Amino acid sequence: MQRVFNFSGGRTSAYMTIKYWQPGDLVIFTDTGREHPKTYKFINDFEAFENIPVTRISYKDSKEAFTQMLSDKNFKRIPYRMNRFCTDELKVKTSKRYLRSIGIKSFENFIGFRADEPNRVKAKQYFKNIHNKYPLFEDGITKPMILEYFKTKPYDLEIPHILGNCSLCFMKGKNAIMAILREYPELADQWINDEEQAAKTFGHTYFKGVTIKQLRDISQNNLFKDFNLNEITPAFNCACTN
User: If you classify domain 2-163 with CATH, what class do you get?
Assistant: First the structure.
């Protein structure tokens, strides 16, 4: 059976791939178009140093996949914590469509959930013909172990962990978003545009009762000057692993 590795562009999925990958396995990075630029650099470095090819795919083959998804919905819907259709559209369905296009319908799905993330393993959905594998969880691999491992490598992810996946993903929580925008206010531009476009229809926002623009404005005051991005973790679990 074909083995498929979900590669998110972070250390954990990279470690999983290095440790368990075998020739013939397929490594897929599903690009949302809203990753930090250094995530893409890390993927390039991974390929160069590990000699493991990464297949890059995206929603409708768009370089602006997230924006394309919202545009297809005429900006009448914006994802939020209780309706994370972005994960389904940009990750799950996009990956399935690609695999079907190359003739793969049944496969072993390697997911980088660690031993210190048992809730993520329990929450993962199961599908017929897709056999989820959690080798890091089963082998007791934790985040500190992975961080130590990358200290031995000639390359590393050059951004705080909180900046992984979509730069301002609402699953990170409002406080994390404001801390990020304290240092990287320019990251708000795309997300503000989403909400401004949505305001022309139903006025949906990523967080109830507050806009990304307002969070950016708040982040620029002194309240968040002492936040250390390296110490911030997402407020909610996310399923964006591939």
Answer: alpha beta
